[in-house]
Design brief:
Four copies of one chain form a homotetramer. Chain A is of the alpha+beta class. Chain A has a single domain, classed as Roll (Thiol Ester Dehydrase, Chain A), CATH 3.10.129. The first copy, chain A, has three helices and six strands; from the N terminus they run H-E-H-E-E-E-E-H-E. Chains in contact: A-B, A-C, A-D, B-C, B-D, C-D.
């Protein structure tokens, strides 16, 4: 099965390309020359751009934020994150970045992200995000429709 | 016609997505959130990564260099370039970057590159590249097969 | 003489560090590991971030724009640019980026920029910038105080 | 006291600029325009370049690796890391990035890094690094001189 880039992959496509188990959102991309460092592999710092790109897509698809300049759009702020590097990435490798909500509270939620290439897990990133008012005056509750999606699509559970 | 990302587009695909006239190499990608700057559009410096990505692909497809660490692979060095910005790029826009050899000499060649989005030309980049020995001890002639490709596919002519 | 980083260098400092002739604005920085590519030298695309950084500083020091979100601040748009690479840059090298207005018209101006390291010129960038209304509704004239500065400090002349 | 950029700060300089307690290595830099994203603050991914830059400097100063292409230089690989964002960073802010060894074993060590600006802690990064043979054939022990430095300068203790 040909890999489709920059478009959410179906569960079947994910399985065909080695993402096991498949995730709520998975998007493929390809290593750019400018992402390699002097050691000939993808620089550690570049993984964060890949995770961010898929996280932004996730926010759009799940209806959390469209990242357009709207006066009333919530501001998504990352509070913390933990990365694990498992295997280096090389020039021209195809990779798939995933995103899944692992847990959520009233105004914050945790995402679990993975990078897969050639059927092996290359890195994971777990992070905690908070919804703020556009002017940062206070926190915003996660909308009900998003909470429902976290539960029904991602299998995440609310924490108290 | 659906846009296929990160894969060389056929002439028909190029025409369907507004690249006129179609170019020898054209590859589609999509604006990343991390490429936007404070002004809400793609930062001027990011275009050069896009042009480079397609130039590297062109070098691979045309057989000039595979950008893998080989003792005998030629080193492609950019000597100069001229960019023209015509219209800004925004969040999530699909774009197509092209590459075509415009002229060549014994050890150097000129490429003409374009960025298209939504049927309009957003930027162009014209640059001059030189082939060097891996250890930079001297210049290397462009291989005959590449010269033939420059002429027959790109329609470029040798300059003296 | 010790090199002072990220602070405009005096004419004497510039001369002591090989910038000849000295320029209206010159700021020193140092190559970062993340700016090197697989070939072990600074990636071609990174030079544009260096030029931009000094150009932004120049805009602030010359009173053209302070790059803060003000409703009435002009928008500086780059229209075109020409880069010349003369000698590669390596890990940890100190470099000095300069900026000088070369010519100006009513609503546009040309800047000449250089990168120096170890007393040798590594790259130059010549670009044309335009002042626009914040909402891009039209062009803005260069303020008289800036025109005076272009002439008296940079030695630039108005073109018609 | 004037802030000196890109040069290891003395303990007195660190204290004068609000780094409390002072760290074994602390280096100042300044936010670049190209590091801001659409939200007008430094993009989350850019912090990792800042941490990396200081970590590379630390590796050089402590004698772990000089990051020059040597056949026998060890390869420093990052295995995992945890970031905490505490306060956003804005245009032109001066910041200080620190590095300290928190603990070490035979072939791996943990670093604690901080970003300070205007006397407040903006972010922290804790990571685990491993020393590998250049050809990745196996792990390398931390040299005795480096272990001594970890203990005597950083106050780190070996773990078993």
């Amino acid at each position: 099965m040909t890999l489709t880039y920059l478009t959410p992959l179906s569960l079947d496509q994910q399985i065909a390309h080695g993402v096991t188990p498949p995730q709520p959102l998975a998007v493929a991309d390809r290593v750019r020359f400018s992402e390699l460092d002097m050691l000939g592999h993808v620089n550690n710092t570049r993984y964060f751009e890949w995770f961010e790109r898929t996280r932004v897509r996730y926010s759009q698809e799940w209806g959390i934020s469209h990242y357009i300049k709207q006066a009333d759009a919530p501001r998504i702020v990352i509070r913390s994150g933990a990365i694990h590097y498992r295997q280096e990435m090389l020039m021209d490798e195809d990779y798939i970045v995933t995103c899944r909500c692992a847990a959520f509270r009233t105004t914050s939620y945790s995402l679990h992200q993975q990078i897969w290439a050639g059927g092996s897990l290359r890195a994971t990133f777990d992070c905690v995000l908070v919804l703020l008012e556009r002017d940062r005056s206070g926190r915003l509750p996660i909308p009900t429709a998003v909470r429902t999606r976290f539960t029904e699509i991602d299998g995440a559970h609310p924490e108290s």
